[in-house]
Amino acid sequence: MAKKNVRNTRGRIVAAAWRLFYEQGYEDTTVEEIIELSRTSRGSFYHYFDGKDALLSTLSDLFDEKYESLQPQLDSGMTAMEQLLFLNRELFGMIEDSVSRDLLARLLSTQLVTSGEKHLLNRDRTYYRLLRRIITAGQAAGELTDRRSAGELVKLYALCERALMYDWCLWGGDYSLREYAEKNLPDFLSGFLPKK
Fold it and tell me: What is the CA radius of gyration of the chain?
């Protein structure tokens, strides 16, 4: 039970922080506001985080929560490619609706310069476990190529998603990330299909 409370407390802090970051901006959000909205204490906040900057790396937690919430919607009648495109569409929709482009850009830039853990590359994340499961099943069903390992395909898929997010940030978010991915991701992933 203690482990669940730890996860809930940390999760409340993360959810409150990202809500405030989206609504009023990162710079205009204070630690005190995060503590108040999350209904935690100063001690709890500093137990999990060194400060507001430490919360930037938790965006990957929000992404994983989204993936966890989407898992029940993955229909067994969907092909592996349909599942991958569905997950991307839903994640990118969430990003457009609740994560500011500036915050996404901050996260991507921190991952480029950090000498510590690169949270976006953590293979234990829900994101990577789910992708491995979908791709492995797709290969077993003959829906996806077996010319590359499942691990290689997972890495390529993640690379493609990061590239789309990075490019969207570079262009200042002046187009729909979700729509752009819906239009172009199938072409990028065409190499995942078996040769006919």
Answer: 18
Residue 60 contacts residue 120 (beta carbons within 8 Å): yes
**1 contacts: CB under 8 Å, gap ≥ 6:** none
Domain that holds residue 89: 56-192
Q: Are residues 96 and 161 in the same domain?
A: yes
Residues 24 and 81 in one domain: no
DSSP string, 103-119: HHHHHHHHHHH-SS--G
Chain segment 86-107, per-residue pLDDT in tens: 999 999 999 998 887 887 887 7
Residues 179 and 139 in one domain: yes
Considering the domain architecture, whether residues 64 and 136 belong to the same structural domain is answered as yes
Supply the pTM of this predicted model.
0.81
Q: With b meaning 16 or more CB within 10 Å and e meaning fewer, what string describes 33-65?
A: ebbebbebeeebbeebbeebeebbbbbbbbbbe
